[in-house]
Amino acid sequence: MANCVLSFNKDVSLIEEATDQVVVQSPFGRNNSSYHNLTVEQVSPGFLAVMSILAAKGATEEDLSNLVLQTDGVSQLPNFYYYLQKFTNLGLICHTVLDDGLPLAIRIPLSPADNLELLEAAIDQKFMLSRFAYCHQDRGQLILESPLSQAKIILTNWKGAALIAELAKPQSASEISSQLSGISAESIQLFFSLLLSANMLDKTPEGDKSQEVESDTLAQWEFHDLLFHARSRRGRHNNSVGKTFRFLGQIEQPPIVKPKMSDDIIELYRPDIERLKAEDCPFTRVLEERKSVRHYHDEPITDRQLGEFLYRSARVKRIFTTNSGELTNRPYPNGGSRYELELYVVVNTCDRIPSGLYHYDPQDHQLCRLKAQSHHIAPLLEEAYLATGKASRPQILIILAARFPRVAWVYESIAYSLILKGVGCLQQTMYLVATAMNLAPCAIGCGNADLFATAVGTDYYAESSVGEFILGSQPSP
Ligand SMILES: Cc1cc2nc3c(=O)[nH]c(=O)nc-3n(C[C@H](O)[C@H](O)[C@H](O)COP(=O)(O)O)c2cc1C
Known about the structure:
Layout: E1 2-8, E2 13-18, E3 21-25, E4 38-40, H1 45-55, H2 61-72, H3 77-89, E5 93-99, E6 102-109, E7 127-129, E8 134-138, E9 141-145, E10 151-155, H4 158-166, H5 173-179, H6 185-196, E11 201-203, H7 211-214, H8 216-219, H9 223-231, E12 242-243, E13 265-267, H10 273-279, H11 283-289, H12 303-314, E14 318-322, E15 325-329, E16 341-347, E17 356-361, E18 366-369, H13 374-387, E19 396-403, H14 404-408, E20 411-412, H15 415-436, E21 439-444, H16 449-456, E22 463-473
The protein binds flavin mononucleotide.
Residues 291-292, 294, 387-388, 427, 442-445 line the site of flavin mononucleotide.
């Protein structure tokens, strides 16, 4: 026999304020602005019993309404349905589909929403798993999630996983039950209801054409982009967001400035910042004249220009100490002053600097030459050249690599999105400095992080490329 049991989310707390007044505390306090506790007034004995059952092992809606009917009489039923609806919309109610008395799947809301009611899936209607739904293991449980959903589903045994596999193509509950032994059609239908009301099923009308594909807006979202968007913003999840320092005391944070990567060093030119403050191009002229330039003068950029460019864009200006360790100031803004971005300079042609791959030391303002093989460097330059539509071979390619743990050590949920925002801040600063210096700048949209990690010899997961910028001498007008 199949049925669906309702229970409170395990993080809901009930506080009895008076004999007929109970405060239901929502678990969504920290991250949801729509959070509020619900005070239930004039609680009847039957409804008090209902709340106790919801807070314990739960019961079907029919059993709960029967309890109110028998204890309080028919007059209390509207009250019961009113609060059940409220609890559901506040994301406090979990739905467990039982198959033969055992849990098959549990739907747990991740935030309050007004679309958490259980929808009915007709036994002969065809469904397919949404292309945004995915399974992963979390703390020993198999979880089904989707960036389209305000809830997650725990698949409690092999049956749920088998049904998900069947849903790779459009099928109805009755069709699957005829192929899969051990699960009743009724259980499959309830399982479908659970998935349907978690936005994890794609209804496939006549001709098996997916609704998701039919929506122009959704069709333009790729799975990974939508998941990243949903999980790096507040809203449809209940994960911790922001500065949580979750590895404090467990893992050492990487140093504020990356130690020198070689002792083959080139001292770079340092411009006179005080003189530039007085004499440099006016800000609005720089802003208005900034543009991407993909062609260069025959005379390449010089060592002095490269030195000035790096000094004005990316040097360490100051190191200071805070509760969470040492931090730095640099010319470009950066989330939490973590300054995780490392600059790797691929010199193709530059006056008085030999071609090769260098790491920029922003504290000592030096280039440290790396022992990279030319067959690793050439493809990096080639990819940047292709990204400009083969405009010109870049004179200088600056690869921005992130030391990921610098950010993830402090920030939860938003670490990678902060890093990408940081790339934008640095790229704009580079654009403006290059314009003020009459150099040719251009950001590059995508590079190869594996190629970078191989060329530089970094651990892909500890530090790999997240942005690129090309630079050269300004062509004659
Ligand atoms: C994040 C980002 C990625 C970019 N990627 C490329 C690229 O791969 N190739 C390219 O030629 N230009 C690239 N550009 C430059 C843009 O095409 C350019 O900024 C845009 O066309 C506006 O022109 P403007 O910079 O001259 O104002 C990129 C710019 C940004 C900000």
